[in-house]
Amino acid sequence: MGEPVTAISESLYDRLQTEAFVLLHTIDAEHESPTSSAISWVYAPDPQRLRIAIDGRSRIVANLTARSDVCVTVFAAGSVQAVYGQAALVTDQLNNVPFNIVCFDIHISALRDAMFYGARLAALPEYENTYDKRAAEKLDGQVFDAMKKA
Question: Residues 104, 121: contact at Cβ < 8 Å?
């Protein structure tokens, strides 16, 4: 078996320069069982890392602090990619954001196509904010700006 792929492709890197819906898989700190969360504050500062921002009150912060192993499911053009790595705290408070947002880098240790055989993803998943859209856009802009400067 060859060496694992440890960097995302150029097309996936480009996709992760703007807001994307991904699934974050961690190990629950209290129950030591797998857990999944949908997040959208994710971007790739370079092809070997993903950066995520999490509300400081979230269980995800405790999970990543207790155990750094993580998997991120990224929905890409035609496929689903599983990005494996270790999370490392960047900052426990992003600057210029109105509430406590914690930022982690995920150093990629392996990447694999997670789409089942004989199929392709026909459309990317979409979501919509269920609260004030202007407030959501403003907060997203603040968080992404702060993530890129962290």
Answer: no
SS3 string, the chain, reads CCCCCCCCCHHHHHHCCCCCCEEEEEECCCCCCEEEEEECCEEEEECCEEEEEEECCCHHHHHHHHCCEEEEEEEECEEEEEEEEEEEEEECCCCCCCCCEEEEEEEEEEEEECCCCCCCECCCCCCCCCCCHHHHHHHHHHHHHHHHHC
Lookup: tokens for 39: 């997040």
Rounded Cα distance between 102 and 54, Å, is 5
Query: Which pLDDT tens digits describe the chain residue by residue (150 residues)?
Result: 678 899 999 999 999 998 899 999 999 999 999 999 999 999 999 999 999 999 999 999 999 999 999 999 999 889 999 999 999 999 999 999 999 999 999 999 999 999 999 999 999 888 888 889 899 999 999 999 999 999
pTM given for the model:
0.93
Strand 42-46 and strand 49-55: the pairing is: antiparallel
